[in-house]
Structure formats: structure tokens, C-alpha cells
Design brief:
Layout (H helix, E strand, L loop, with lengths): L1 H22 E4 L21 E4 L5 E2 L26 H8 L5 H13 L13 H14 L13 H14 L10 H9 L3 H13 L3 H18 L2 H4 L3 H12 L7 H6 L1 H13 L5
Antiparallel strand pairs: 1-2, 2-3
Subcellular location: Membrane
Keywords: GTPase activation, Membrane, Metal-binding, Signal, Zinc, Zinc-finger
Membrane topology: Peripheral membrane protein
Length: 274
């Protein structure tokens, strides 16, 4: 009986070990990536870290041993909002989207939808930096009300800066080629199908944030007569903000700019794909 019990324990241990191997795969990341547990850079060109097959969490091999079962990163490592990995931020704070995105969009929609050149017109850079520091310091308690920042372009500038500062863009390096491919397709049905496939490549937090942002930008276009911002104009602003080419070739990245614009324009016009 003792031998049978020992065999059962060994079998169970082997099964658990197998599961841990299955759920965490060594992964080669395209473009720069940061560990979502310790927030440090993943060095190397291949097999830089481990990707969780369940939740998409990206961590160093050594950090994967310390990640809890729910893959939630340690809050003590998440000391700021800007320049922090998006998935890390939402998991650490147990939110669907980064609070800076929700708060800025709420503020913009409450008092800025009719503002001419919304998102196109730049706000005062020093005040945009103030908003950034307020979020990094105070998180969801940051005051971005009209009493603090009367010019709505300060808030739109802070939102755009958040997306530009992401270490991994909202449209990730891994998903980037598929999105660009969709913009190059001429057949409308095939284009939408490819765009839908591209969305499936995004991590859940990235996809949810993109969905929320596109719904907001659609509402911006409904006030086009007042703000003069249609889907094409917003695509010009947000294309390079949400997408960065994983290619190091400057010319190749430059050639992609028109397709980045088209991707955002398509996403605004076809929100049902989410």
C-alpha cells in the first residue's frame, strides 16, 4: 500500500510539473519587451523569456517561478502609471483598463467633444507633463478637472502621451504585421476578416483598451461639424501613437505610416469587430 501511495504521489507531481510546462512556454519576443513581474528589460534576441499560455503574461524565466497562480504582478514593482507595461498596470490594480485612459476619456467627453481640432491641436507641453506626474504620483486620485486644467487639449495631450510612452504599444509588436497586412488588402470582406484575426493576436488588456478607445473616437466623429475631426483625421493622429513598427529599418517604418493611419480609421468605422 505504501508503494502504491508513493507511486500515486509521483504521478501527481509529474502531472503538475507537466501542467506548469504546458502553461508557460519559452518565447521569442519581437521588439523590446519588459518583464511584467519585475518590470525589468528582457535581454537577448531569442528566447528572452516565458509567455503564459493562459493569460499572456510575459516574464523572465527566473521570474516565472515566483508568479502566483493568478499571474497578478506584485504591486510593489508597479510604481508609476506612465511608461509601465499596460497588462502589468491593469493586473496590478485589478482594472479592465488603465485608469489614465478611463479618466482622460471621461473628462474629454464631459467637456471637450465640440472643441475644434480635438486631439489634433497640441496642449502646452509643461502642463501635459504635470498631468503625467499627477497620475504617476496619485493614480486614480489625480485631479484633471476643469478647475486644474481648463484647456481640454492638455487632457488629450496627456492621453496621447500615455500611449506613446507604453514600452509595448497598444497594438503590440507581435500583432503589428497582421494589422498592417489588413490595411493593404483591397477587398472589403477580406480586409475585415484579416483585421478581426489581427485583433485576436492582442493580449486581453490591450484589446479591451483599444475597443474602449475606438468607441470613444467614434463618438468624437459624431461631433465632426463642431470639432472638424473625422475618422481619417483621427487616424492621422493616432496611427503612429498606437502603433510602432518592430522593424529597425527607418525607411520600412516610414513607409508604414500611411497604413497605420488606415488601421485606426478602419477600427473607428468597424467597432463591431471587437
Amino acid at each position: 500500500m505504501a508503494i502504491m501511495g508513493l507511486l500515486m504521489l509521483l504521478t501527481l507531481a509529474a502531472s503538475l510539473h507537466f501542467l506548469s510546462i504546458c502553461f508557460h512556454h519559452v518565447h521569442t519576443f519581437r521588439g523590446p519587451h519588459w518583464c511584467e513581474y519585475c518590470a525589468n528589460f528582457m535581454w537577448g534576441l531569442i528566447a528572452q523569456g516565458v509567455k503564459c499560455a493562459d493569460c499572456g503574461l510575459n516574464v523572465h524565466k527566473q521570474c516565472s517561478k515566483m508568479v502566483p497562480n493568478d499571474c497578478k504582478p506584485d504591486l510593489k514593482h508597479v510604481k508609476k502609471v506612465y511608461s509601465c507595461d499596460l497588462t502589468t498596470l491593469v493586473k496590478a490594480h485589478t482594472t479592465k483598463r488603465p485608469m489614465v485612459v478611463d479618466m482622460c476619456i471621461r473628462e474629454i467627453e464631459s467637456r471637450g467633444l465640440n472643441s475644434e481640432g480635438l486631439y489634433r491641436v497640441s496642449g502646452f507641453s509643461d502642463l501635459i507633463e504635470d498631468v503625467k506626474m499627477a497620475f504617476d504620483r496619485d493614480g486614480e486620485k489625480a485631479d484633471i478637472s476643469v478647475n486644474m486644467y481648463e484647456d481640454i487639449n492638455i487632457i488629450t495631450g496627456a492621453l496621447k502621451l500615455y500611449f506613446r510612452d507604453l514600452p509595448i504599444p497598444l497594438i503590440t509588436y507581435d500583432a503589428y504585421p497582421k494589422f498592417i497586412e489588413s490595411a493593404k488588402i483591397m477587398d472589403p470582406d477580406e480586409q475585415l476578416e484579416t483585421l478581426h484575426e489581427a485583433l485576436k493576436l492582442l493580449p486581453p488588456a490591450h484589446c479591451e483598451t483599444l475597443r474602449y478607445l475606438m468607441a470613444h473616437l467614434k463618438r468624437v466623429t459624431l461631433h465632426e461639424k463642431e470639432n472638424l475631426m473625422n475618422a481619417e483625421n483621427l487616424g492621422i493622429v493616432f496611427g503612429p501613437t498606437l502603433m510602432r513598427s518592430p522593424e529597425l529599418d527607418a525607411m520600412a517604418a516610414l513607409n508604414d505610416i500611411r497604413y497605420q493611419r488606415l488601421v485606426v480609421e478602419l477600427l473607428i468605422k468597424t467597432r463591431h469587430l471587437f
